[in-house]
Amino acid sequence: MTSPPPRPNRPVYLDNQATTRCDPRVVTAMLPWFTEHYGNPHSVEHVMGTEAEAVVEDARAQVAALVGADAKELVFTSGATESNNIAIKGAARFAGNERRRIVTVATEHKCVLESVADLAEEGFEPVFLPVRPDGLLDPNVLRAALEVPTLLVSVMAVNNEIGVVQDIAALAAIAKQAGALFHTDIAQAAGKIPLDLTGWKVDLASISGHKIYGPKGVGALYVRRRPRVRLKPLFSGGGQERGLRSGTLPAPLIVGLSEACRLAQAEMAEEATRLTGLRDRLLDRLRATIPDIAVNGSMAVRIPGNLNLTFPAATATDLMARVPDLCVSTGSACSSATIEPSYVLRALGLSDDTAARTLRIGIGRFTSPADIDYAAAALAAAHAGAPAPGVERFAQA
Amino acid sequence: MVYLDANATEPLRPEARAAMLAAMEVTGNPSSVHAAGRAARRILENARESLAARFGMPAQDLVFTSGGTEADALAIHALRAGRRVIVGATEHDAVRSAPGAFTLPVDRNGVADLGTLAAWLLDGPPTLVCLMLANNETGTIQPVAEAAELCRRHGAFLHVDAVQAAGRIVVRLAALGAHSIAISSHKLGGPPGAGALLLAPEVTAIGPMIAGGGQERGRRGGTPPLPAIAGFAAAASVASNAVHLAPLRDAAEAAAVAAGAIVCGGGAARLANTTCLALPGVRADAQVIALDLDGIAVSAGAACSSGKVTASHVLAAMGLGPLAGQAIRVSLPWNATSSDVAAFAVAYRRMADRLRAALAPRAA
Lengths: 397, 364
Hints:
The complex is a heterodimer.
Chain A: E1 12-13, H1 24-34, H2 47-67, E2 74-77, H3 80-95, E3 101-105, H4 110-118, E4 125-129, H5 139-145, E5 150-154, H6 168-177, E6 181-185, E7 204-208, E8 219-223, H7 251-289, E9 294-295, E10 306-310, H8 316-322, E11 326-327, H9 343-347, H10 352-355, E12 358-362, H11 369-383, H12 391-396
Parallel strand pairs in A: 1-11, 3-4, 3-5, 5-6, 6-7
Antiparallel strand pairs in A: 2-8, 7-8, 9-10, 10-12
Helix pairs in contact in A: 1-7, 2-7, 3-4, 7-11
Chain B: E1 2-3, H1 14-24, H2 35-54, E2 62-65, H3 68-79, E3 84-88, H4 93-96, E4 102-104, H5 114-121, E5 127-130, H6 144-153, E6 157-161, H7 173-176, E7 180-184, E8 195-199, H8 226-238, H9 246-258, E9 262-263, E10 274-278, H10 284-293, E11 296-297, H11 313-317, E12 327-331, H12 338-363
Parallel strand pairs in B: 1-11, 3-4, 3-5, 5-6, 6-7
Antiparallel strand pairs in B: 2-8, 7-8, 9-10, 10-12
């Protein structure tokens, strides 16, 4: 039996697709905008307001730069879930024309699937396309679906469970050719892979703060200006964000999102190399002790920090229970409290039994080689049936 | 800079700052089941319990949102199905923008006409009434408990925007009798980016406006803004009422009146921190700019519509005619001091004298 490794001082966090630690540099950038410069950015009649307004506009340009957009094309929201809701429901409700079909993919985030499904009640026709066993959408499947005139296509750039990267430029081109709008959820892609929304002719894209080491409670929606994409807001009010999203803009959180985007852009290439090294190190070590471990989703087109692993002889819940100081997950965080198998893995063709033996591992900016070594050894020991040391203490915490 | 625009946003309370900083140290997503997720979940649920206790309701019936506007919108989205909507004439735009809503008139002090409401509810169709607890421009406090009694007698729902009232007067869901209440973090000294909808027991099973993920018991999708929520709860736990600001507000008001101002809504019960001051003949934006140059931050109305030089719909609904475009809002933050008020008094007199002198030749 594999001997359990020494315990780390604190839980090892390998769930960076669920959420990320707010980078201390982001916290530092936000703090003055919480405390001294607390003005409402819409109070443009006094200097406390105008300085907040100015910093929000600087942030807009910074976020735009990361995704290859113009500052005027970005609307701030409370997060990617809200952005996805506004994009999908907003585009459908504004158009309301003879095109009723809305096409998305079975492996999208819950909020995209639910937004599309909800539109059935309003007379739209939701279509959920399958993916290939490697998690990628076959362009020919999309082309076939678009033979029926389609209002909107929504395909995420990077999957939140298996990390595979769709060819957004190619898929957007197919959608445009068919006269459909193209939306992409880039919550898991922004800051991790280069994005060129303008060049790719994407119409709508959703961004999250807390997936890129920024704060929770802020995100953005990219809305193409040329040609202009029109949306109906999800809710009305003070008319902020050109009427698309009412409510006081949380200036400090927006500053945090901006700083997170700046850091991600500056460090993207170097970080990708480092994360790839850590991921390969983890996979190599696990394979050395568990040769039959399987990776779900394409390894060729995948973000560097993600692994989705099926273990041959232990369930994910058992593994997690045996290594409570290792923070990994069975799938998307929003649904991870439920025991139901991941619908993403089902869409890849995995049986429920196989899905139940699968873990999502998200390596991130604050993951060290020592964390990886601990994770590899602890998972190997847990797979062999041994609880890691210190379980009692963590179980009580 | 003397900041007297608290109704646009309150300065952050130190308790909120401390709670946020602590929450930022916790990485997890509150929906994750591992140790980091459970630590995040504890912060979220502690905040929910603390806020619920503050507002006199069960924790499970409190839905976190991104702010007051979303909370108002969610309430209307969830409660209006199959119902006529009646909104007070002085409501915030977040409520006033409800499509197809009927407008309930107010009197000269901004108090809703409950006689008219009673007449409308009598034998009317099923109705959702939206009535704010305290107005953002004048501070006028509405007779919400009486309105709730009327609504319940006639089977109507009552949604209450308590964004400006929460933290300044006592707000308890059951005592008010409302079906739902919207509150906002940054209006009570917490950070921006968080709010909540408080639901009465009979309306807790509401559908989401933002779908996906199943958070907030399926009532609001999206990862909750954890540090902001921690700051929100900490601020609410120390923001009990604003009565200590009444003498300061009264002093500011008296100084402005001595310089020629008329108090809008002064005849009603008001928030202790707010006064709405009209200076006859002088455009509101000119007053605000002059005061800003003199180091005093006030506003000409709601912050969201700031920048647009339009007359206040609140003051217009109160029948104030041209004065609706000639009034500024002075709202004292929780940490206002007597020296702030003294500086305001001097600046107001200077502003009033100068701008009214400019009017004089044309008047003569």
